[in-house]
Amino acid sequence: MFLRAPCKINLTLDVFDKKERTDGYHNIDSFVVQFREPADELRIHIKPASDRNSIKVTCNDSRLPVDTRNLVYRAADAYLTHIDSLFNIEIDLYKRIPTEAGLGGGSSDAAAVLRALNNYFNQKVEPLELTAMAAHIGSDVPLFLAEKPVRVRGRGEIIESLDFELPVFWGILVHPGIGVSTPHAYAALDAVPNRQPVTSTERLLSRLCDKKEIPINISELLATGLSNDFEPVVLTTYPDIAKAHEIIVSAGALRTLLCGSGSAIFGLARDLQHANQLVDILTVNFSSIMIVSSSYPDAFNIKQI
Ligand code: C5P
């Protein structure tokens, strides 16, 4: 099987006080969309085994572990254990989504494996159970089981579909050349005294549900609605990311937004032509820059090979 595992960005990301939960995680409220590109690619081979399960992962990026620390390994292991069958699984992972960028690459890879195995085994695992399995692997894995924009709550395990069509929008994605560790970003947020989370998700979603609010260009609405609680603290902690942020603003992006807990930055464009102009201006500043759009077709292809 050949699969693409797309990246995500959080258009809003409200992070609540850690004390709300007893498991050490934070409740969040987030509006998440997936972008078709950049996407990782996975090739999965499944064969029945006679005596025990075996899982083998190979990866083009030699810096990534291919053992139980890799989320695709954990996903395959969790699935086989759950269905209690003996199989040999080989996964060849081709990484295109940068790691520690807040784009959910590893989580998307794990969700792709869960979806592929559940297809192979004729949806043997019910959706609710699959979501629980995904949440056990990582907080961002459940959202990637959905093939559309979703609202994400809890620590990431509560996924809600939205009852409106999100019009297509365009932007650029910049990787500033450094990564941010998610646990460190959460710890930095916890260290901010008297931090008040904003309720940007509720606000943006109710505006998007209100037909009167959708302007001719969705970007105009998004420009005033994008929000990420990590942004101030990550920009203060990492001057290189703050600098990249400033450069994208001066190039004329309608709005810039830190992706997840960082480090990638999304620059909102008016349309495709504007996104192209931004790339032309910014290629001198960044070696990793690309045009992204929220269109979904073909993002989730699973092909037999
Ligand atoms: O679930 P995952 O392994 O992706 O989380 C990585 C780390 O990020 C957790 O150990 C925790 O420190 C932090 N986290 C959190 N609240 C969340 C998601 C992640 O505190 N909702």
TrEMBL record:
The keyword Kinase applies. GO terms for biological process: terpenoid biosynthetic process. GO terms for molecular function: 4-(cytidine 5'-diphospho)-2-C-methyl-D-erythritol kinase activity; ATP binding. Keywords: ATP-binding, Kinase, Nucleotide-binding, Transferase. Belongs to the GHMP kinase family. IspE subfamily. HAMAP family: IspE. This is 4-(cytidine 5'-diphospho)-2-C-methyl-D-erythritol kinase. It comes from Rotaria magnacalcarata. The lineage of its organism: Eukaryota, Metazoa, Spiralia, Gnathifera, Rotifera.
